[in-house]
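Appendix B. Chain record.
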Amino acid sequence: MIYSNNNFFFSKKISKHFDKQVYLKLESQNLTGSHKDRESIKLINLATKKKYKKIGCASTGNLAISLAFYARLNNLKCFVWLNKKTYLIKLLEELGAKVTLKKISLKNLYYESNNFFKENKILSANPGVYEQKLDANRIITSEILKKKNKFQCIVSSVNNGSHLLGLSKNLKQPKFYGVYSKSKLAKSINAFSLTEIKNKKKNGKLNLIKANDKEIIKGFSLLAKEGIFVDGSSSAIIGSLNKIKYKKICCVLSGSALNNLSEVQKIMLKKTS
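Structure tokens predicted for this chain:
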């Protein structure tokens, strides 16, 4: 186990601001700064078991970094598909990943990459392909529930298909909230993937909240007061807590600011303007 399980934190400042009891599960403390480490480890273990020599994903950032890192550690070739040119490309290539850039929608990126992976005997780490992605995120909820704090709800970002669905897998309680946005300050939660679209009806227990620029900036500022710096998707969670009626909440913060400094820069500039 390489990911952190000692990352549970009660936020006095955020709790006081919202008049709630707010606990934070800091998945951003995992080795590559993301909850995606759990998925990567599960899927690389699966690839090894199935005797695949290659693994791949379509990604907006965090999964790409994590998968490339752990693939290199385990001597697997890694293939990453992106739909936007980003400073991460150089890092991914240094980690040994083969990067394909296609300027298409995220939905189409998943579809085309899955076809490519299937044709080339590459295990796909994309949403909706293997149940291990959901199982990896379900472990996070298990760790939260072991705290016996009797949480009324768990709040996370909607990270393209596996995070929220995995957290809530096979559970009726507590309530689960997923935060998404159309803001440029939190691009990784700008769109619902095929997995969420397919599961929307049968996952009526999921409550979706839309965060705007103002809420993302507020969340970033509140977390900064606790000395915690995360990406826009996690800031959106904290900034949206006023929209949740429950008083005892656990927030799963999924991405480090260091993985998306350009996004954090935009938040800081908006904050001071």
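Further analysis of this model is presented in Appendix C.
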